[in-house]
Amino acid sequence: MCKMHMIKVALVVILVFFFCSNNNDQVEGQVSYGFYDKVCPQVENIVRDGVQSMSLTDPTTPSALLRLMFHDCQVQVFIWILLCKVG
């Protein structure tokens, strides 16, 4: 059972490395306040109002969004660490 688990983990690591190493379309940049001012001037108000209204119906919305953003960041950092160790 343990050997099968190690094979699965190794396969996942290899697949992640393969897909990440073939990604040549990486964009370097950061989103900041006012980023969408020219394209959609009201986007920050729309998102804020949406989150506020969802928070009234489901109080876990802000924490879920925070968890989503934190998880997204952690996944990117983890992949970068893997690539540095392997490459």
List the helices and strands and how they pair.
Layout lengths: L1 H20 L21 H15 L3 H26 L1
Account of the 3D structure:
- The active site is at 71 (proton acceptor).
- This is peroxidase.
- It is an enzyme of class 1 (oxidoreductase).
- Residues 30-76 form the Plant heme peroxidase family profile domain.
- By secondary structure, the protein is mostly helical.
- It has a domain at 33-87.
- The chain is 70% helix and 0% strand.
- It contains 3 helices and no strands.
- The protein starts with a helix and ends with a helix.
Helix content: over 70%
- Structural classification: mainly alpha
Low-pLDDT stretches are none
Number of distinct beta strands: 0
Q: DSSP helix count?
A: 3
Inertia-based shape: elongated
Q: What proportion of the residues form beta strands (DSSP E)? A: under 5%
Mean model confidence by pLDDT: 70
Could you spell the SSE succession in H and E letters? HHH
The radius of gyration is: 19 Å
Major pleated sheet: none
Cα distance spanning the termini: 30 Å
Characterize this entry briefly.
Its cofactor is heme b; Ca(2+). Helix content is 70%, strand content 0%.
Sum up the structure in keywords.
single chain, 87 residues, mainly alpha, 3 helices, 0% strand
